[in-house]
Amino acid sequence: MRILVTGGGGFLGSHLVERLERDGHEVVVARRAESDLTSLDDTARLFDRARADLVFHLAAEVGGIGANRAYPGRYWYANLAMGTNVLEQARIHATPKLVVVGTVCAYPKYAAVPFSEDDLWNGYPEETNAPYGVAKKAVLVGAQAYREQYGLNTIFLLPTNLYGPRDNFDLETSHVIPALVRKMVESEDEVVLWGDGSPTREFLYVEDCVEGLVLAAERYDGPEPVNLGSAKEISIRELAELVAELTGYRGTIAWDEDRPNGQPRRSVDATRARELFGFEARTPLRVGIERTVAWYRSTVSSVGH
């Protein structure tokens, strides 16, 4: 197949592109430097060039709590505009199938845990990432509307927090695992973490997520959103202790309780993915973090920042 991957130069996208090429597909990689998907004209040119049988829309502007608080307008606008433009061009170009990657940040702040897809609309997202989460939910509505009116076959997947080699380790915009890894590799005496360590998160290894995307593209054609997760919940405090163990960090872990915790709990019910297209995460968190630490030490810290 000829496959277009937006965000193909990013963290998740680069792993997906490798997998698709290994499977023998011809892949068109859309990178931010070449195509601004917030521009309808740029998106139209990309679809004209790609002429794809299948599109994975992974491009997004994302970050941790700090980045979401610093750039709420940008995160709302960019993610909404990119999703809207990709949907419209998929319609215009009669793309046979579109796979859109959403976000676990779309779930209500106090949704019952584990998050069920049926609870997606039962409340407002956690405030620090609400603009990003709401934008992604609006793209889901658009996908369902385009399916109903134009017959566009779009599926919508909701991965939980991703991590792994090639993640973003920039402390201004990174998520929790790469931030912990970098701080603990580079610090000796003390690392300061936001909140009190009580919130819980669920993490999905990037290559497991890729497997979920591929399985969904091959086997699922429904309008309902589907979670991708590992079904393992861990507190941020326990996570910090695990990363300290795996990096060999022996300094102090301090908690800045004047900083926000973010969503109190975050874990998804992945039953629908297993039942609809046979997806199950296979990489234990410890193994995934070990691989992430090894990659960081060998690749990133060797060239500096």
List the helices and strands and how they pair.
Layout: E1 2-6, H1 11-22, E2 26-30, H2 40-50, E3 54-57, H3 65-70, H4 72-92, E4 97-101, H5 130-150, E5 154-159, E6 161-163, H6 176-186, E7 190-194, E8 200-205, H7 206-219, E9 226-228, E10 233-235, H8 236-247, E11 252-256, H9 271-277, H10 285-303
Parallel strand pairs: 1-2, 1-3, 3-4, 4-5, 5-9, 6-8, 7-11
Antiparallel strand pairs: 8-10
Task: Give the low-pLDDT segments.
Answer: none
User: What does the main sheet amount to?
Assistant: 6 strands, parallel
What shape does the CA trace take?
globular
User: How far from one another are the termini?
Assistant: 38 Å
How many distinct beta strands? 11
What Rg do the Cα atoms give? 19 Å
Structural key phrases:
single chain, alpha/beta, 305 residues, 44% helix, 3-stranded mixed sheet
Brief characterization of the structure:
With 305 residues, this protein is of the alpha/beta class. The chain has ten helices and eleven strands.
Description:
The protein is an alpha/beta fold and 305 residues long. Helix content is 44%, strand content 16%. It has 10 helices and 11 strands. Helix 5 (130-150) links the parallel strand 4 and strand 5 (154-159). It starts with a strand and ends with a helix. The model has no long low-confidence stretch (mean pLDDT 95).
